[in-house]
Amino acid sequence: MNNLREPECEEVICENPQDVEYNKNSEYKQSRGEILRQHEVRILFLSLGCVIEVGCKKIPFTTIKEGMKALNDYVTKPYETAKIFDKKLEGGEL
């Protein structure tokens, strides 16, 4: 007999109803908080600029100010900012 139990998941209640969004087709779009919790964010400060790592993607910035602005944009609007950087990474711009 196995006494181990699966950990119980807590129901996540959206604190701010405005965080839940729907796209043009009325499909569910993850909340800002859900998107931000998906990936670990790391910042590596260099002698010139920084590298910000979101999940498995590493994005270099020539100045710390530029990197912090991009990070702030990501925290404020993670879905939109991630789309912008995905396009740049796919196009080889970074």
Explain what you see:
By secondary structure, the chain is α+β, with helices and mostly antiparallel strands. It has a domain at 64-94. The chain contains 3 helices and 5 strands, in the order ββαβββαα. It has helices at 32-38, 64-76, 78-90; strands at residues 21-22, 28-29, 41-45, 50-54, 57-61. Strands 3-4-5 form a 3-stranded antiparallel sheet. The protein has a two-stranded antiparallel ribbon with strand order 1-2. α2 (64-76) crosses α3. The longest helix has 13 residues, at 64-76. The radius of gyration is 17 Å and the shape is globular.
Which secondary structure elements does this structure contain, and how are they paired or packed?
Layout: E1 21-22, E2 28-29, H1 32-38, E3 41-45, E4 50-54, E5 57-61, H2 64-76, H3 78-90
Antiparallel strand pairs: 1-2, 3-4, 4-5
Helix pairs in contact: 2-3
Order of helices and strands: EEHEEEHH
Counted by DSSP, the helix tally is 3
Mean pLDDT rating = 80
Q: Main beta sheet, described?
A: 3 strands, antiparallel
DSSP E strands, number? 5
Secondary structural class: alpha+beta
Arrangement of strands in the largest sheet: 3-4-5
Helix content: 25-40%
Measured distance between first and last alpha carbons: 55 Å
Low-confidence stretches: 9-14
Percent of residues in β-strands: 15-25%
Q: What Rg do the Cα atoms give? A: 17 Å
Shape by Cα distribution: globular
What's the quick description here?
Helix content is 35%, strand content 20%.
Could you name the key traits of this structure?
alpha+beta; two-stranded antiparallel sheet; 5 strands
